[in-house]
Write a sequence for this structure.
């Protein structure tokens, strides 16, 4: 795999890629035109925050398959544009959490104890002991977001013995109690806190969440810390509250403009009551190595056909659930590819049903894998688990995903029901010892491995039919690896599935079909 590293990342990440056989072009600090030339042949792109991965940049990379952000956020990546192209976007959400939490604590303590001001004065040899800071002891600290960073900030704050409040609608009460934190709504948090610290991503819901209205309801003398994302705190509203004294101070590491350009942001940076750093939360030496290696590992895993754990545009769970789902994703893809070759008609609707133990996991990834298998053979552009739903919508395919408790005698079953102009067809499969198996075809129970060259025939069963099939294939020099028959009654309609060592030509398929007077014959090829 050819990997272009667009921004400067830790050397350990680049070394990992090279050690695992990737062809790496490291362009950290190189001019823009060098990057644009390199994109023409790259399959993987690694960035930090300097390179904006826009739709225009993607257009220069026709072979791009994965974008890795060596950091937590993906603000500089147009994830939607990547998803439309079927490009996987991954980040490194755990590599710099300790660094971000410790930087938050440094900023918070510097703010309340007025360290930057005292430092600046003493540097000019002004000895002034009249600067009075504040203690965290018995203060009320409000934490917005109790995720990976916020929870670590809470753990570190406990040693200072404040009252800890938090707002996070996605965290259960039990987890908050473990952290020694009381969950409240955002309005209560703002109203009761002496200090507010933010640890949320920038989304439409969080953008400007601390604005003029919220600041008006806050306690006089509030202090604000934002080491999360620029734009979460409304900068003009914060500046106004600092100017009129309602907010005593702020500590800010992240900005809506980086570097600052507008008058408002520049004034906020230069305000005497604001402690500032230029987005350094993740800039510990340890964090930079962690995120670079984390992203490099995911690029290599993707190249090797594995599901990547930290893809932001693919629904995946934690490591344990991912290990469980991996063979089922392979089954889902095989079922999709099998169905579309069995009935190559315009698909109007598909229903994906997960039953049994596998139904206790999130079925979305399996549904996407089914769609990718169904659509990839009939679409000119790339179709995968990233853009499968989008491609289905564009082609007018209705998609339904359902769960069932019972699995019809199996521990788990994945069923794909397709609807085309010729009717509704059902195919089901399961996983035995980590290997995909088909267990139902149409209304018949039939078991086989969906792999290699497959011949499917349907005919009226009567004596000698299997011999005719074997004889016809034998005369063609086609070897049968295995044969599987499904039927409901003696001498009734039968479906025969043959796994072959060689692929049939269209003429050979017609000859075999004539030999048994088949009413249905398909050749299917699965990798």
């Amino acid at each position: 795999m050819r990997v272009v590293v667009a921004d400067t990342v830790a050397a350990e990440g680049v070394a990992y890629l090279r050690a695992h056989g990737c062809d790496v072009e490291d362009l950290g600090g190189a001019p823009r035109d060098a990057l644009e030339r390199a994109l023409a042949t790259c399959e993987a792109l690694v960035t930090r925050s300097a390179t904006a991965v826009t739709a225009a940049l993607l257009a220069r990379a026709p072979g791009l398959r994965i974008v890795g952000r060596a950091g937590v956020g993906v603000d500089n990546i147009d994830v939607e544009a990547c998803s439309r192209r079927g490009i996987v976007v991954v980040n490194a959400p755990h590599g710099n959490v300790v660094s971000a939490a410790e930087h938050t604590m440094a900023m918070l303590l510097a703010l309340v104890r007025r360290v930057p001001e005292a430092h600046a004065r003493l540097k000019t040899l002004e000895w002034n002991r009249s600067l009075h800071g504040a203690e965290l002891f018995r203060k009320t600290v409000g934490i917005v977001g109790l995720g990976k960073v916020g929870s670590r900030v809470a753990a570190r704050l406990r040693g200072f013995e404040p009252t800890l409040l938090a707002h996070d609608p996605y965290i259960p009460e039990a987890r908050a109690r473990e952290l020694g934190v009381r969950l409240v709504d955002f309005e209560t948090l703002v109203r009761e806190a002496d200090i507010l610290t933010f640890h949320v991503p920038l989304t439409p819901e969080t953008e400007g969440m601390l604005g003029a209205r919220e600041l008006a309801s806050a306690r006089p003398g509030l202090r604000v810390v934002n080491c999360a994302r620029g734009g979460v705190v409304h900068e003009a509203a914060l500046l106004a509250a600092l100017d009129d004294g309602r907010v005593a101070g702020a500590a800010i590491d992240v900005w809506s403009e980086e570097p600052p350009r507008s008058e408002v942001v520049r004034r906020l940076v230069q305000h005497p009551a604001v402690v500032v750093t230029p987005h350094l939360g993740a800039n510990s030496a340890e964090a930079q190595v962690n995120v670079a290696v984390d992203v490099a590992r995911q690029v290599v895993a993707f190249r090797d056909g594995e599901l990547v754990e930290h893809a932001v545009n693919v629904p995946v769970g934690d490591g344990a659930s991912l290990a469980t789902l991996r063979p089922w994703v392979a089954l889902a893809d095989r079922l999709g590819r099998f169905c579309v070759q069995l009935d190559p008609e315009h698909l109007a609707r598909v229903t994906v049903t997960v039953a049994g133990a596998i139904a206790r996991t999130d079925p979305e990834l399996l549904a996407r894998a089914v769609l990718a298998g169904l659509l990839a053979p009939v679409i000119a552009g790339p179709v995968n688990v990233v853009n499968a739903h989008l491609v289905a919508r564009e082609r007018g395919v209705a998609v339904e995903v359902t769960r069932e408790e019972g699995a019809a005698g199996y521990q788990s079953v994945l069923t794909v029901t397709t609807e085309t102009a010729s009717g509704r067809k059902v195919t089901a499969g399961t996983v035995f010892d980590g290997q995909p198996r088909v267990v139902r075809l149409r209304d018949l129970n039939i078991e086989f491995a969906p792999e290699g060259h497959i011949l499917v025939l349907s005919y009226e069963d009567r004596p000698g039919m299997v011999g005719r099939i074997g004889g016809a294939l034998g005369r063609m020099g086609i070897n049968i690896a295995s044969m599987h028959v499904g039927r409901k009654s003696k001498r009734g309609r039968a479906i025969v599935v043959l796994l072959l060592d060689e692929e049939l030509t269209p003429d050979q398929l017609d000859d075999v079909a004539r030999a048994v007077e088949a009413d249905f014959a398909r050749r299917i090829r699965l990798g």
Notes: The radius of gyration is 30 Å. The chain has 18 helices and 22 strands. The mean pLDDT is 91. The chain has four domains: 2-92+287-303, 97-276, 317-450, 452-527.
